[in-house]
Amino acid sequence: MSKKINVSDICDVATKGGVVGLVSYVLSTYEIDASLNIVILPAILYVLNVLSTKIGDPQIANFFARQSKVVEATVKETIAQPTSVAKIPAVKKAVSKNKKR
Fold it and tell me: Model-level pTM greater than 0.85?
């Protein structure tokens, strides 16, 4: 597999992981209860995710990615064009071959 690795994705993951690691270190240093630690860390991840959608690209929740202009243009074109309703062809009544006239 030869996929191109985006540097902004690596920076985003490293930043979020660093923040979570730092908070976890501080919580363990001050001997905060483990149950509170379990509640705080997902809340911090949620806040980081919300912030990254507000700051960076909202579609991939990345702090350092630029918003994609192509995606925005495609969405605007899709919304601007009304969808056409497919017309259902009329069903013809089947004539029985066994029926005598």
Answer: no
